[in-house]
Fold each of these.
Amino acid sequence: MPVITTPQEFDVDDLFVDVRRVTGYPLYLKCEGFNFAGSVKLRAANEMVESAERAGALRPGMTIVESSSGNLGVALSLVAVSRGYRFVCVTDSRCTQASRRLMQRFGADVRVVSRPHPERGLLGARLDLVRRLCEEHDDFHWLNQYANDGNWTAHYQSTAPQIAKAFPDLDILFVGAGTTGTLMGCARYFREHHPAVTIVAVDAVGSVNFGGEPSPRLIPGLGTSVRPAILDASVVDDVVIVPEQDTVRACRALLREGFLLGGSTGTVLSGAVRWLREHRPDGDLTAVAIAPDLGERYLDTVYDDGWVDESFGPDALTGEPFTPPPAPAGPAGGPTSAAPGSRPSPPHPQPAPHHSADPARVGPTTTGSL
């Protein structure tokens, strides 16, 4: 029987959901929401705080300040109150009301930015406010998840080894790209220990992480309007870019099977299925996708028909997000086994844009810049 003294000690790390019945492909979701923070961000939050303490940058009586669209803010609120720190979260209007209320119940001071920076969007405006707060208060410490090595080492040390242990024959790993901490930690681990595994990043339309054109995004979580300093595209094999309408459809497809998962999970799942449909329609592989969070915080957005209709139009509420791969037809039109190495291509709608994560295309990571 587990007995804990702090909330961050509890984190279910070995739960995988087989979503083949939903998607038609051999794909497993690593569910990261079963902890007291409700998302994968608890690991990064705890590691960044502990690293700052070890370095002497964070001391008793100080205030932690961080920019977050929701999940990291909730995780840091939990870690801060359990370790005796005050916490200021700078977020923006996309942060769900549920996440704001959770942070406030943990004692956080939540500052909401509503006016985007003309070039760097809402994230740029958030970062400007964080810098201003640190200039005004000597006892504020900015963890800076966008450039903090603790953001990715947390997943190098835990998330990636857990996946490798559960799936020693893993072929493909799909990871969402927000601040890219989870992506970088997992990609670096597999590059060093299991280089045959293909790492596919999943990002949102409107994000600049992999050289895309910036545009407004409504669902918090994946994507950024300022490229994170910790992102190194050279350890990523491919990238899938997902429209937010497909995020909604994927979330609701899971809900119809009884799985209430978050917006980031819907984006990752949609991207994974699109990539598999185009590149591995034979389905002869083992694939894992990381599901970053649960769905309760999205009840007023992704799972609200009125919000979806107003935000994306009625088409986002209709249509099936996944087309299962058809069985190969034999000479008489009946099903048969595909020949070794053959990859029949099922009919499907035009996939979401994707491209190889060529560092020459997206530009090298500039350490220390934001």
Amino acid sequence: MTDYLKEANNPQNQEDFLNRIAAAADRPRHTLKDDPLVPVNDLPETTLAGKTQDELLAIAKKNSENVHVNFQVVKAADLGITLNNFIAEKEVKSLMLPSFDEQKWNDYSLGKWQENLQLDPIYYWEPSQGRQNIVNANASDAAIGFADFLLAESGTITIATYPQQGRMFHFLPTHYLAIIPKSKILPRSRQAMDYYQKAIQEGSLKTSNINFITGPSNSGDIEMVLIVGVHGPLDMEYVVVEDM
């Protein structure tokens, strides 16, 4: 695989490849610098523009429930109780949590919450465990994690992959709950990507991928019978913390 990557990254091979495509298409090559993208409209910037956070919350709730998400709004002081209720309702015996530092948990008023859980095992997604994290996630009844943003337009949560919360964290456990501050509700994907692009360029975010998750999977067979949760978690819950 390494040899293939070297060949693919060879500048002369890249030039030969692009020249071959241009010749086959019977048109000259061009670059973005010489032929800049001209948007056909300003919908990415103007859709839901000017909405207050309360208005975005109401839109996000409606659109999330439309994609079969259980949507809750709580205060930070009640978040621990909400998570405990989720664990009890789903009859969780094995739980996966992210391994963010103590400050992250304190920010959500969850300082010692996980230490009081009567569960065994509780898995933490640890960078040092490598692929064992994937095995643990697959063995977990549920995962409780932190989302970066909630997109009001589609009921989508966005989550970059972090060493403390890897990509399979969100897809392998049987049930899934995402915590989102109300202040992190955005109109749509454009605003989220503006943030990620800036963070990556500045070096404050280093990630291998960014997940856009719009509720549990929704699959329809040839008879148009909707089945929720065929791929990934059986169900999903968004908990918006309104005083953050």
Amino acid sequence: MPTAAPQAPRLRCCRGYDHDEAEDDPAIDEVVTRVLTSFRESATADDKLELARARPSIPREIDRALLLDASVAMQHYDLDENSRYRLRARFWEKYDEG
């Protein structure tokens, strides 16, 4: 008897006005930690220098990873500007923590 394929988590499109941003903080921290760890383990010295020089901007490939991972972790298809801002700000906070 064939088994059903596992289903991906359903992503919500939008959040209501009563959304508590603090609910997303653990997911944001987890995503930022994972992306930074991956970057630090795989980046060349030139990549690390480029990241430092680009500050406060985040290179496109890192930003994309942050946004995609956060979208899945927070179960929101389209992150609002405030969530994107908080995600990017947390990236630099964690980066500075080393």
